[in-house]
Design goal:
alpha+beta, 2 domains, about 30% strand, elongated
Length: about 260
């Protein structure tokens, strides 16, 4: 079988994964605080017919070798944690992070997850929770009848009860040495892994951790124009590889017709 058939097949598979990644980015263009992904590829092993630097005759060395590649393969799909633009919502329970950092969320199994999505609500106990009902860590509870809910740049949460200002909690953020190593859990949540490193937890606006912006949300960092260009490039690359398979098939057909 011609080597080009299998080589082109790996190229088609790689571009299919590329298009799948782009499709997920475009599907989440309006998802709060969504971080787009980028597919990366590397070439496969080479068949060495003549090694570079091999001796041709006594005292002479060939300047280049003969190596035939075997195609391409997906090496990684990276999350790009560039900050999205701010959307002013004028809703006092909406919080955005300016800079690095993640909100800490307790899932229903007790584990801690991380998110940039600051769209919070109050549950029946007055706790700040996500749209799925997961509470913020540490828990922040708003007393019944409280007014003037306010979150400072440093995450200090204050309300007015019976006309008196009270501090009811402190928003703490987590940062990671390698946020690209976080595991995507869906529902705008991420989980820590060995690749991301241990979380560095602290109050907002301290030690390089981002600050809190109230009544704002972070938009998705998906650039539609860039994704459309990437999609066109991926589509053309897929077509070119399929053309290689067609050409290889025609060459085999011509060989079979030789008498």
């Amino acid at each position: 079988m011609m080597r080009s058939l299998m080589t082109a097949a790996t190229g088609m598979e790689a571009q299919q994964t590329n298009i799948d990644t782009i499709a997920n980015n475009l599907a989440n263009v309006n998802t709060t605080a969504f971080k787009r992904s980028k597919a990366n590829f590397h070439d496969l092993l080479y068949q060495t017919l003549r090694a570079p630097g091999q001796s041709a005759t006594t005292g002479t060395v060939v300047p280049s070798g003969i190596q035939i590649g075997a195609g391409a393969k997906l090496s990684s799909v990276d999350k790009l944690f560039t900050e999205g633009s701010a959307i002013v919502t004028e809703r006092n329970l909406d919080l955005a992070i300016e800079g690095d950092g993640f909100f800490r969320i307790q899932k229903d199994d007790g584990s801690i997850a991380y998110t940039r999505d600051g769209h919070f609500d109050k549950d029946n106990a007055g706790r700040l929770v996500t749209a799925d009902g997961f509470p913020m860590v540490p828990e922040i509870t708003i007393p019944q009848g409280a007014t003037d809910f306010h979150v400072g740049l440093d995450g200090a949460v204050t309300v007015k009860v019976n006309g008196e200002t009270q501090e009811v909690g402190q928003v703490q953020l987590a940062s990671f040495i390698n946020p690209a190593g976080l595991a995507s859990l869906g529902r705008n949540l991420f989980g820590g892994t060995r690749a991301s490193g241990e979380p560095i937890v602290g109050p907002a606006n301290q030690n390089g951790i981002g600050r809190i912006a109230q009544s704002q949300l972070e938009a998705s960092n998906v650039n539609i124009v860039e994704e459309m260009v990437n999609m066109i490039t991926g589509q053309r690359a897929y077509e070119i590889n399929s053309k290689v398979i067609t050409t290889g098939d025609q060459m085999l057909q011509a060989t079979n017709q030789i008498r």
